[in-house]
């Protein structure tokens, strides 16, 4: 009877001892692979969501000397820029006053593409392109009133006059 009790106790004790480290190793490998796959999936989803957010943003800034509408956010990390020029306008920074030029050079964040276009349109309206008026010739004293034409020449363009620098 004592021997019968020892045999079943010995058999289960010897089975886990032989399969212990070998059985646990594949479990650890599978668990590590599963955790790694889960972390990489979450990183990929986060990067995709971040990039989608960045590409849905707009701002008005400067590209060279031209005011431009940008898609993305103003910034970069190493060689990666987070914005691209969506549209260059005919408006240049030298047409803007100092305050407006400073704001645009820093980047004006807007809600969407239409808001960016509206902002640029307001800038163009506020700072129209100026054309210097054509000089009007001064009649000389030798010319007689009958020899000179009575109508003065019209200016070449109808744009607003240029602001005088202060």
Strand order across the largest sheet: 3-2-1-4
Radius of gyration: 38 Å
Look at the structure and give the mean pLDDT: 81
Number of strands: 4
Fraction in beta strands: 15-25%
Based on CA inertia axes, which overall geometry fits?
Answer: rod-shaped
Fraction of residues in helix: 40-55%
Question: What is the CA–CA distance across the termini?
Answer: 115 Å
Contiguous runs where pLDDT drops below 50 for at least 5 residues: none
Largest sheet: 4 strands, antiparallel
N-to-C SSE series? HEEEHEH
The number of distinct helices, counting runs of at least 4 residues, comes to 3
Structural class: alpha+beta
Give structural notes.
The chain has 166 residues and is α+β, with helices and mostly antiparallel strands. 46% of the residues lie in helices and 20% in strands. It has 3 helices and 4 strands; from the N terminus they run αβββαβα. The protein has a 4-stranded antiparallel sheet with strand order 3-2-1-4. The longest helix is centred in the N-terminal third of the chain and has 54 residues, at 2-55. The radius of gyration is 38 Å and the shape is rod-shaped. The model has no long low-confidence stretch (mean pLDDT 81).
């Amino acid at each position: 009877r004592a021997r019968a009790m020892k045999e079943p106790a010995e058999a289960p004790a010897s089975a886990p001892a032989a399969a212990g480290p070998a059985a646990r190793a594949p479990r650890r490998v599978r668990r590590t692979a599963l955790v790694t796959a889960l972390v990489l999936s979450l990183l990929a989803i986060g990067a995709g969501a971040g990039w989608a957010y960045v590409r849905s943003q707009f701002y008005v800034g400067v590209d060279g000397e031209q005011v431009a509408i940008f898609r993305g956010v103003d910034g970069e990390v190493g060689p990666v820029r987070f914005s691209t020029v969506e549209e260059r306008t005919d408006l240049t920074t030298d047409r803007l006053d100092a305050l407006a030029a400073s704001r645009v050079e820093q980047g004006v964040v807007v809600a969407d593409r239409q808001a960016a276009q509206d902002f640029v349109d307001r800038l163009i309206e506020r700072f129209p392109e100026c054309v210097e008026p054509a000089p009007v010739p001064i009649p000389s004293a030798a010319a007689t009133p009958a020899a000179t034409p009575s109508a003065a020449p019209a200016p070449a363009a109808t744009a607003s006059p240029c602001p005088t620098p202060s």
